[in-house]
Amino acid sequence: MAITTDMIKELREVTGAGVLDCKRALDETGGDMEKAASILREKGLAAAAKKADRVVPEGRIEAYVHPGSKLATLIEVNCETDFVARTEEFIGLCHDLAMQVAASNPNYVSREDVPESVIEDERAEYRAQLADDPKPDHIVDRIIERKLGKFYEEKVLLEQPFIKDENKTVQQLLTEAIAKLGENVIIRRFARFRIGE
Questions:
Q1: Cα separation of 8 and 88, whole Å?
Q2: Which end of the chain has fewer surrounding CB within 10 Å, N or C?
Q3: Three-state SS across 81-106?
Q4: pLDDT of 46-94, one tens digit each?
């Protein structure tokens, strides 16, 4: 199948990848748009992993005030260059992340930010809930780990389902942004304000 410029353009719009990468992926898959997009996503994830250790001295502090002005959030998102920090894609990402914090009320950015004492308290509470359960210890331990996973999904921003697409997590959204922007991007911190809290 002959690869047309319209096919390359369509794939670019979907993936954000470069023209040559899109052409190569379409050539490799014989023009299959879905397979080509999948290949480009995998390459993007690999590229994002390589960028994870880069320093991120620039960025943006985004504010979101919910209609009615009773709920607001601030979030600091960092990137490598001021150029990227001023792009529409980065500004849109920051706005979406500020809305995410407003909607889902996380307590921590990542698992690493959760104090060990909080994790131990959660484990102890789950163990107490299962104290009368006659299941073997290894099954109880698995149940506790599953419950802890749900705790992380609720309280850790990067592990929450993204409010605009519940099929992906905030971490996956961030990884896609890294692949698309070509720079490391991290969420440094956030704050959530609600009247009366």
A1: 22
A2: C
A3: CHHHHCCHHHHHHHHHHHHHHHHHCC
A4: 555 555 666 778 999 999 999 999 999 999 999 999 999 999 999 999 9
